[in-house]
Design brief:
With 272 residues, this protein is an alpha+beta fold. The protein has one domain: 2-Layer Sandwich (Alpha-D-Glucose-1,6-Bisphosphate, Chain A, domain 4), CATH 3.30.530. It has seven helices and twelve strands. β11 and β12 form a beta hairpin. The radius of gyration is 19 Å and the shape is globular.
Amino acid sequence: MKNKHWAVLLFLTLMTSASGWSESLNNYLTGINPGILAALKKDGEVFREDRNHKGLMMLPDNPLSAEVQKAYKAGEPSVVSEALYLIPYTESIHGINTDLYNMILQVRDISRVQYHSSRRDAVVPLFDDVYRIDSLNYKRPLPDETVTEIPEKKEFLIHMKEVNFGPASYTLELTHRNGSLLLNLTNASVIRKVIRVVERRKLSLQLLITPVDEGFLVYGLCGVHLSNENFVTNMLDPYSAFYKRLYALEIWMYNTLHGTARAPRIGTAFKE
């Protein structure tokens, strides 16, 4: 019986190796550009900048994909970047469980999120002074919380000071359904840099986390509708600047899961 068990495992391993993908991963990535899939398989991550306004091209086939699209359309973004990542499991976390969920609820740890500054050519903190708040009017810091059971929906406000755009309030919405988890971080207050850069609820950073055989398949989407677009684009490349913020959150998740200090150095965007 034992030999039969190992024979089955060996057969499944060989089948997975032959295709390069597990069946569970293939099920979520149907219809996606083969070049994108090849880059994901090779590097464990791939991203694109939607400079030609083609729309979403990497969104997995997931029960929560409709929620991603709903938030995406609501923000009416003028600048869009999206990505796919594969994050290996740890010894204790092999799916969406309370350990992973409570890790995400520790929003003060977002202060450890870093990004690579091209201007300084160094990895520097992206966010500072991060904490939960009661409301937009009363910004008294609240302690982080934990749960014993994962709710289907959870939403709360957080305060964050961003390295380039200063302090602002954000809404973090978590949706758990059919074994997947969606994080949607939107700005609840205006983001400024001398003048208005992004109006309320016009920036959305989404991470859709799906357990597959290889680990966590993470789909990332950054959509932002810029105010005073000419001023902003003269100051920075909005595609690169806002994607860095999405990528930094994914790196934060990876490092928190694995206890590593992986630096967020972005490669080259996928060329369509």
